[in-house]
Design goal:
The protein is of the alpha/beta class and 376 residues long. It has three domains: 189 residues, NAD(P)-binding Rossmann-like Domain (Rossmann fold), CATH 3.40.50; 83 residues; 59 residues, no CATH class. Helix content is 32%, strand content 22%. A seven-stranded mixed sheet has the order 8-7-13-14-15-12-16. A five-stranded parallel sheet has the order 10-2-1-11-17. A three-stranded antiparallel sheet has the order 5-9-6. Helix 1 packs parallel to helix 8 and helix 1 packs parallel to helix 12. The longest helix has 20 residues. It is globular. 39% of the residues are buried. The structure holds uridine-5'-diphosphate-glucose.
C-alpha cells in the first residue's frame, strides 16, 4: 500500500518507520530543509557547539516504552535539567524548592516548617483553581507568584495570568526539599549526537522516500492513507479561521569560554524583554570543554504571524471552539489521520509525542490486520 507521512518530526518518523518495516512504501514530506521538526539540532557553524535550533529540548519521560524506543536509535547520556531564575537582581533555583524558598524569604527552614509557611501564604479560599493566577495563589502565595511567575508568564503568553488556564502552571512541581531537578520523571537524558541524528536513524529503513523542502500541498500523487502531523487548520486551508500560537524569536550571541555557567537562566522580571537565555554547550556537558567559544540565545515570545514557526498552542476559549470544529472536520475526513503537536493542536512534550505515535502504530497494526483502512 502507499502511504504519505506529512512532517518529519518524531511523530512522522515513528509512523513512517513502522509502516516501512511492514513492507509498505512511505513518502515522507517536510517543507523544511531538515528533519526533526522543532527538535532539530545542528552544529553551530562558528563555535561548533550542538544547538537546538528551535529552543531547548530536554528528553524526560515516565514511559518505559518511549524511553526504550528512543534508545534504539542513539545513545542518551545523563542530563538533569536544573534551571536558574533571576528575579529583582538575585539568582534562584527553579522549580520552586526549599533553596528557592529559603533564599527568597531569607530563612533557614526545614521541609516541614517551609510547607507550613507556604501553606500560610497560600490563598485557601481558592478550592478549585481555574486560572493560572488562581493556581499560583493557591499553591505558593502572592510573593513567589509575583517574583517568578507573573512577569515571566505575561512575557511568555502575552496575556494576564487571570486569562490563562491553571494547567500551564500545573506542569511545574513545588518541592519542600533541595531537589532542583526541573522534572519529576524517572528517565532523563540528552542524545549524544543530537535529536536530528536520532530521527535520522528512525527514518533510516528501506521503503521510505524522504522529500525535504517539499510541502504536502505540492504533491500530485494520491495515497491510500495520509498521516498528517502539520497544523490541523492548515490542512483545511484555514477555512474556519487560524488557531492561535505563540512563536519564539532567538537572538544569538557568542562569548568566550562560559557565558552564564549553566544551560538555562529564566528572567522573571517584566522589565527584561526576553524570557530566558540558553547556553547550548551546557546541554552537552560531556563535550562542553572542547569548545573555546560559547553560543547563547536570548528568547523572546510573541504572537505567531502567518509565516512564523508555531510553537505554543494558546488554547483560549475561542481557539478551543475552533479546534473542536476542526476536529469534527478531521473525523469526517476519510483517509487521513492527524497526529502530533500541530496535528492535534496540543502543547506536547517530546516524550508524549513519542508515546502517542507508538500507540498510533498499535492501532495501525490492528487496522491493517482487519484490512480496513479506517485508521485512527
Ligand atoms: N513560568 C514562569 N516562570 C518561570 C518558568 C515558568 O512564569 O520561570 C510559567 C510560564 O507561564 C510557563 C509555565 O510556567 O509557560 C510552564 O513552565 P515550563 O513548563 O517551564 O514552560 P515551557 O516554556 O513550556 O517549557 C520550556 C520548554 C520545555 C522545557 C522547559 C524547561 O518548552 O520543554 O522542559 O522549558 O526548560
Amino acid at each position: 500500500m502507499s502511504f504519505c507521512v506529512v512532517g518529519a518530526g518524531f511523530s512522522g518518523a515513528i509512523i513512517a518507520r513502522h509502516l516501512a518495516e511492514r513492507g509498505h512504501k512511505v513518502t515522507v514530506v517536510d517543507e523544511r530543509p531538515h528533519i526533526g521538526g522543532n527538535c532539530h539540532t545542528e552544529r553551530d557553524a562558528e563555535t561548533g557547539v550542538m544547538i537546538h535550533k528551535y529552543g531547548p529540548h530536554i528528553f524526560h519521560t515516565a514511559d518505559q516504552r518511549a524511553w526504550d524506543y528512543v534508545q534504539q536509535f542513539g545513545t542518551f547520556l545523563p542530563y538533569v535539567n536544573r534551571v536558574k531564575a533571576i528575579s529583582q537582581g538575585r539568582v534562584y533555583t527553579l522549580p520552586v524548592n526549599l533553596l528557592t524558598i529559603n533564599q527568597f524569604f531569607g530563612t533557614t527552614m526545614g521541609p516541614k516548617e517551609a510547607r507550613a509557611f507556604i501553606e500560610g501564604k497560600a490563598d485557601k479560599s481558592i478550592t478549585s483553581p481555574r486560572s493560572f493566577e488562581e493556581q499560583a495563589l493557591s499553591m505558593i502565595g502572592p510573593e513567589l507568584y509575583k517574583a517568578f511567575f507573573y512577569g515571566y508568564t505575561r512575557k511568555q503568553w502575552g496575556l494576564e495570568p487571570t486569562e490563562l488556564p491553571a494547567s500551564i502552571l500545573k506542569r511545574l512541581p513545588l518541592r519542600f526539599n533541595y531537589d532542583d531537578n526541573y522534572f519529576n520523571h524517572p528517565y532523563q537524558g540528552m542524545p549524544e549526537e543530537g535529536y536530528t541524528a536520532i530521527v535520522q536513524n528512525i527514518l533510516n529503513v528501506d521503503g521510505i522516500d524522504l522529500r525535504l523542502g517539499c510541502s504536502f500541498e505540492s504533491l500530485e500523487e494520491t495515497f491510500q492513507h495520509v498521516f498528517y502531523t502539520g497544523p490541523i487548520d492548515r490542512f483545511f486551508q484555514f477555512k474556519l479561521g487560524r488557531l492561535g500560537y505563540r512563536t519564539l524569536d532567538f537572538e544569538r550571541f557568542v562569548d568566550d569560554g562560559d557565558h552564564q555557567g549553566t544551560a538555562v537562566i529564566n528572567y522573571c522580571d517584566e522589565e527584561v524583554p526576553f524570557t530566558r537565555i540558553s547556553e547550548h554547550k551546557h546541554f552537552a556537558p560531556w563535550e562542553q570543554d572542547k569548545f573555546s567559544q560559547t553560543v547563547c540565545f536570548r528568547e523572546y515570545s510573541r504572537l505567531a504571524g502567518e509565516d512564523d514557526v508555531p510553537y505554543y498552542p494558546i488554547r483560549l476559549v475561542n481557539e478551543k471552539q475552533m479546534l473542536d470544529s476542526y476536529i469534527e472536520l478531521a473525523r469526517s475526513e476519510k483517509g487521513v489521520s492527524f497526529l502530533g503537536r500541530l496535528g492535534t493542536y496540543r502543547y506536547l512534550d517530546m516524550d508524549v509525542t513519542i508515546t502517542e505515535a507508538l500507540a498510533a502504530c498499535d492501532r495501525i497494526d490492528s487496522a491493517l490486520q482487519a484490512a480496513e483502512l479506517n485508521l485512527p
